[in-house]
Design brief:
This protein is an alpha/beta fold and 370 residues long. 45% of the residues lie in helices and 17% in strands. The protein folds into 2 domains: 172 residues, Rossmann fold (3-Layer(aba) Sandwich), CATH 3.40.50; 190 residues, Dehydroquinate synthase-like, alpha domain (Up-down Bundle), CATH 1.20.1090.10. The radius of gyration is 20 Å and the shape is globular. The model has no long low-confidence stretch (mean pLDDT 95). Bound molecules: glycine (GLY). The site of glycine has 7 residues, from α5.
Length: 370
């Protein structure tokens, strides 16, 4: 029996718990009941997750005396757009979800972000609970209150900060993920070590290849990642400073996702993994860290089977100028200047707005070669 671990996010009136454990979907009814003013919730999920986990969630709610209605959206990044947001909000209104009700987001990062945003704008804000079903969502997107959708101009450009009231991360559901999705989510786990915890990265170097099969190690990795994120979000909820460090690898990653059309060619976590490798390479070329750091990052990602370079992305990519232009849509851009999360070593990330274009171009050129 693995007892759930609770990470508290102490944000005053917006404080909440992240519960991490095995079988939390089956216990969701009793976990959620204390939040409810009437025994009724709306669930928004995607078609893939619905087939795997929705009946269990609804059975658990029903056993706790909670009625539920569910809406399933198509699975995939293309759902994080205006038409699906409109459909979700209108469905919630049609089902008379009131100001004091709670909406459940059952799914990966796409569902969590979209449903969180729908909850933020529905009747000027209703509460929501995240039930993240991907590794990426459990360690990153379900915690911290960033919600939103993509725009043709770039990823996550439309949204709001809206904290969930509870996060239930059932680490047993990660066993239903295919290897590629699990690994892509792992890119975000490794990111925590890269950005702020060299000891955690050392632990991952020893244990990462056992996370998929060992629930105790998996719970530890998820709880440690969530603990780090909770600390950063508590100190900087609206990303005035430190929270930007969570975007390590994302300036490159988001540009690569845009360049590949948010398609199956490159998953978000894969873009982050490549982005982390490139950010460390850039840091070493700028003389900010020794060559040992990018070599360790690259070796770790490659050993696990994650893409770590532009050459690992199937198909053609736009030229360097076009990739750099895509980076210009990054939310960290300030006064028109690109800002990168770079590192002085593993676990020592910082924000830098002074990256010479020729060094950036050299990083991209070499990454195309492999
Ligand atoms: N995923 C980055 C953040 O939550 O700030």
């Amino acid at each position: 029996m693995i007892e759930p671990v609770t990470v508290h996010v102490p944000l005053g009136a917006r404080a909440y718990d992240v519960r991490i454990g095995v079988g939390l979907i089956d216990r969701a009814g009793t976990e959620i009941a204390p939040l409810l003013r009437r025994p009724r919730v709306a669930i928004v999920t995607d078609e893939t997750v619905a087939a795997l986990h929705l009946p269990r969630l609804q059975a658990s709610l029903s056993a706790a005396g909670i009625a539920s209605e569910a809406m399933s959206l198509p699975a995939g990044e293309a759902t994080k757009t205006w038409p699906h947001l409109i459909a979700t909000v209108e469905w919630l209104l049609e089902h008379k979800i009131e100001r004091r009700d709670v909406v459940l987001a059952l799914g990966g990062g796409v569902i969590g972000d979209l449903v969180g945003f729908a909850a933020a704008i529905l009747r000027r804000g209703v509460r929501f609970v995240q039930l993240p079903t991907s590794l990426l969502a459990q360690v990153d997107s379900s915690v911290g209150g960033k919600t939103g959708i993509n725009a043709p101009q770039g990823k996550n450009l439309i949204g709001a900060f809206h904290q969930p009231s509870l996060v239930l991360a059932d680490i047993a559901v990660l066993e239903t993920l295919d290897r590629r999705d699990f690994l892509a989510g792992y890119g975000e786990v490794a990111k925590y070590g890269f950005l702020g915890d060299a000891a955690f990265f050392g632990w991952l170097e020893q244990n990462a290849d056992r996370l998929r099969d060992d629930p105790v190690l998996r719970q530890r990795a998820v709880a440690h990642s969530v603990g780090m994120k909770a600390g950063i979000v508590t100190r900087d909820e609206t990303e005035q400073g430190e929270r930007a460090l969570l975007n390590l690898g994302h300036t490159f990653g988001h540009a690569l996702e845009a360049a590949t059309g948010y398609s199956g060619r490159l998953l978000h976590g894969e873009g982050v993994a490549i982005g982390c490798a490139l950010a460390f390479d850039l840091s070493a070329r700028m003389g900010l860290c020794s060559q040992e750091s990018p070599s360790r990052v690259l070796a770790h990602l490659r050993r696990l089977g994650l893409p770590a370079s532009l050459a690992d992305i199937p198909g053609d990519l736009p030229d360097d100028a076009a990739l750099i232009a895509l980076m210009g849509q990054d939310k960290k851009v300030m006064d028109g200047r690109l800002r990168f999360v770079l590192a002085r070593g593993i676990g020592e990330a910082f924000v830098c707005d002074d990256v010479p274009t020729e060094v950036l171009a050299a990083v991209l050129q070499d990454a195309r070669a492999g």
